[in-house]
Amino acid sequence: MIAQSEYLARREAVLAQMSANSLCILFSASEQTRSNDTEYLFRQNSDFFYLTGFNEPQAALVLIKQADNSTQSILFCRAKDKLAEIWNGRRIGPEAAKELFNLSSAYPVGELATQLVELLNGKTAVYWLQGESQLNDETVFSAILAVRQKGKFASAPTQFFDLRCIIHELRLIKSESELAVMQKAADISCDAHIRAMKSSAAGKYEYQLEADILHEFAYQGARFAAYNSIVAGGDNACILHYTENCDELKAGELVLIDAGCELNGYAADITRTFPVNGRFSKEQAQLYQLVLDAQQAALDSFKPGQTLSAATQIAVNVITQGLIDLGILTGTLEQNTQAQGDNPPAYRQFFMHGLSHWLGIDVHDVGAYKINDQDRPLTPGMVITVEPGLYIAKDIDNVEPKWRGIGIRIEDNIVITESGYTNLTQAAPKTISAIEQLMAG
Ligand code: GLY
Ligand code: MN
Ligand code: MN
Fold first, then answer.
1. In this predicted structure, what is the pLDDT of residue 135?
2. Which of 247, 258, 362, 365 is catalytic?
3. Is any atom of ligand 1 closer than 6 Å to the C-beta of 269?
4. Total structural domains within the chain
5. Closest CA relative to residue 273, chosen from 401, 396, 411
6. Looking at the CA of 359, which ligand is closest?
7. Which of 37, 176, 342, 397 is catalytic?
């Protein structure tokens, strides 16, 4: 769990970067209809969550930095309501929220529109997540317009900043307590992959392995998957975002599972690929080892100062050279890794996605990948995935039939440390022998 003192420190870090005499506003997520009058389970807006830990819809956080640099954090949230709470669940209410969440003050959300006009009057600058939601933009612009309409003694802000520049940079570097939560999310997700490996058998359906994964998540206290789980048997693994999970698993085929839980708001993102029946065929093992070698080569390079594009190139070179050695590609490493005229490099037929992305509250977490259009050097506290893959479609005609219909991805989650990196997801087996041994047992 993240302590309330840490949420307070995050708000202070945002306030420290705001100009004097400014206001910042963040809005909670809204409930989303699934069917008729039934909603999806609520998931908080990631930025709002990062600054509050408050997990209700219909809320807004206002941060104020006065001209003398004194600050306030104000929450607007749903008022207590006996009848609504009988039907739809408990609400914290402004009074309790003020104490529980270390706020300067808290008010019923019904007061937001009018109070915002007063709070904005006289401020120079406003920060919010511009364009994230039309409704939220309208709330901000309507309040600014109302200040302008107040007459000559009122003064509306004239500087409008996108809050992303501040908050997404803060989110990119994880604290010790965030890393502890992410390690736990990773541990649960590793257990889920192990459960699915043990449960796998020909004749089962992809959704049954998905059920194993979700069971383990929920049973260990992580009720939500961080993203829709991919359970892809055979050549379904060549569909990168396959989520139908409806086909029967067949003996002799591989199954690719890309699944991670969300725990206390933080995501894990793990992929393992294993034989449905627990034994790799010769061709499957050759391709699998290639992906594993590419992942290891990239992993070995991670330390502060490394860039994601340099690490990607390392993985690309291993995969491409391996494909040449297996006779799947012809020509030199350079010929296969360089664009040929308008055509992408040849290796991209088989490895067509990136190696890494930031990981955190969002599975594809926030933060700039480039600074001044240059690849950003990695620094301690960044969490990334490392996920090379190899996908040889069933209907590809320039590859020998024995390689076709095989999709492999291996994905781990690592933290950049002072001396290199720590692998959060090493508990999920990934060597050929470790997988075969687990599945045999
Ligand atoms: N699970 C989504 C991804 O690996 O990026
Ligand atoms: Mn990923
Ligand atoms: Mn993934």
1. 97
2. 258
3. yes
4. 2
5. 411
6. 2
7. 37
The reported pTM is 0.97
One-character DSSP codes across 331-351: S-HHHHHS-BTTBPPGGGGT-
Percent of the chain with pLDDT over 70: 100
Nearest 10 degrees: Cα torsion 331, 337, 342, 348: 100
**Which of 229, 239, 271, 273 has most ligand 1 atoms within 8 Å of CB, for mutation?**
271
The C-alpha atoms of residue 194 and residue 216 are separated, in whole angstroms, by 10
Place of tokens 């039939």: 401
Q: Judge if 160 and 181 occupy the same domain.
A: no
| Ligand 1 nearest atom to the CA of residue 357, by list position | 5
Q: Structural domain of residue 192, as residue ranges?
A: 173-440
Which pLDDT tens digit goes with each residue over 11-50? 999 999 999 999 999 999 999 999 999 999 999 999 999 9
Q: How far apart are the first and last CA of the chain?
A: 35
Q: Are strands 370-371 and 374-375 parallel, antiparallel or unpaired?
A: antiparallel
Whole-angstrom CA distances from 437 to 5, 179, 275, 434 are 45, 30, 12, 5
Looking at the fold, whether 239 and 261 belong to one and the same domain comes out as yes
Q: Give the residue-averaged pLDDT of 91-112.
A: 98
**Domain co-membership, 248 together with 164:** no
Please confirm, yes or no, whether 241 is among the known catalytic residues. yes
- 421 and 283 together in one domain: yes
Is 242 touching ligand 1 by the criterion CB < 6 Å?
Answer: no
